[in-house]
Amino acid sequence: MPIPTELVGSLPRPMKLQEAYADYDEGRITFEQLQAEQDAAAEDSIKRLEETGEPVVTDGEQRESSFATYPITDTLAGTGLADNLAGDGQFFAIFDDGHHRQLPRLTGGPFRYKTFASEFVEKNKQLASRDVKQAVISPSMMMLLYPLEEELEGYSREQFLDDVCDEVERDIRQCFDAGAVRVSIDFTEGRLANKNDSRNPWTGKDMLQEFIDLNNRVLDRFSPEERKNIGIHTCPGGDCDSVHSKEVPYEKLLSKMFQLNAGYFLIQCASEDDKESVYKLVGEHSRDDANGVPQVCFMGVIDPLSPEVETPEQVKDDLVKAAKYIPVERLGATDDCGFSPFSRDVKPKHGSPDFARDIAMQKISARIEGARLASEELGV
Ligand SMILES: [Zn+2]
């Protein structure tokens, strides 16, 4: 079988859509008007991804406030926040360029999603002529909505985590029911968990094992057959062309991440200084049998934060090298991250989000062609 290839999920939102989000926050347009812009951008994303030859497409997350907050708020400014949440939670991440992203704060129970990702899948199925995938957020990211130290009155951390697991399970199941062939879980907080950033207390609490155990509580509710198509995405962040945890030694994460009983992984690698050591770690730690399912490792061969377009030959060379360490039947190709995980992102290194969409399509084409060339060279 040729080396499979898959995108993480997001694409830059066109400037017109970003302006519509801002207009909606200011009360200048209605939610229906915002949705019309979202739908137009989603349709354009799907059409253009299909033109690149991408085998499994997404809407580029054009209808989502962000990869992490789509279930609980309509916009990043907090318009349409779900029940029992306030806007002033802890930092999710502080990025290298100095900007930060903040999470809402849970004020009481019960915790419930207001939007499930299956809503997007249903719409995208109508638009796509190829298979559709959907990225969802992890239980471990939702865990950060609960105050770090205190216990909420009348709603224990334990009760909250039970509710989180139920909501995430439902989110994934509904995506499959709506026709998604693949569902990947974003796990960018995995590498950040060892950052020890004093400005951001949760990153100093050594929470990685807790994250993994919580996420496995949900994964273990699915059969091996289902988990074949449930993935985990890891990266050092990707927002406004900046990262949040690239300096954290990758080994800290990669030595533990494959404890997750997922069937595939979308692993940032193209932007690493020493890619070969990443292939080696992935080869060493990924498993042939994760409770009944082999772990297919999609290695990042494209850097979505850089406007420089990779060539298919570069992609091919990376994959051929990766195959020295990772069994080729468990090797795939992906991008290091989504191209724009947050809805407000002007892609500063690219000059504009509209131009960054064009660049993204060129990069995706290079990934697909490079994977084809590598498959040829490796005889698979
Ligand atoms: Zn990412």
Written account of the structure:
With 380 residues, the chain is α/β, with parallel strands linked by helices. Helix content is 38%, strand content 12%. The protein contains twelve helices and eleven strands. It has a seven-stranded parallel beta sheet. A two-stranded antiparallel ribbon has the order 2-5. It has a two-stranded antiparallel sheet with strand order 3-4. Strand 9 (264-267), helix 10 (275-285) and strand 10 form a beta-alpha-beta unit. Helix 5 (157-177) packs across helix 7 (208-219) and helix 11 (312-322) crosses helix 12 (353-378). The longest helix is centred in the C-terminal third of the chain and has 26 residues, at 353-378. It starts with 14 loop residues before the first helix and ends with a helix. 49% of the residues are buried. The protein binds zinc ion.
CA-to-CA gap between the ends?
Answer: 6 Å
Average pLDDT taken over every residue: 98
Indicate the overall shape.
globular
Please indicate the percent range of residues in DSSP E strands (runs of 2 or more): 5-15%
- Spatial sequence of strands, sheet with the most strands: 1-6-7-8-9-10-11
Derived from helix and strand composition plus strand pairing, the structural class reads: alpha/beta
Total beta-strand segments: 11
Q: Order of SSEs, N→C?
A: HHEEEEEHEHHEHHHEHEHEHEH
| Fraction in helix | 25-40%
Biggest sheet layout: 7 strands, parallel
Bound molecules: zinc ion
Task: Please mark out the parts with pLDDT under 50 across 5 or more consecutive residues, or reply none.
Answer: none
| Distinct helical segment count | 12
Radius of gyration: 19 Å
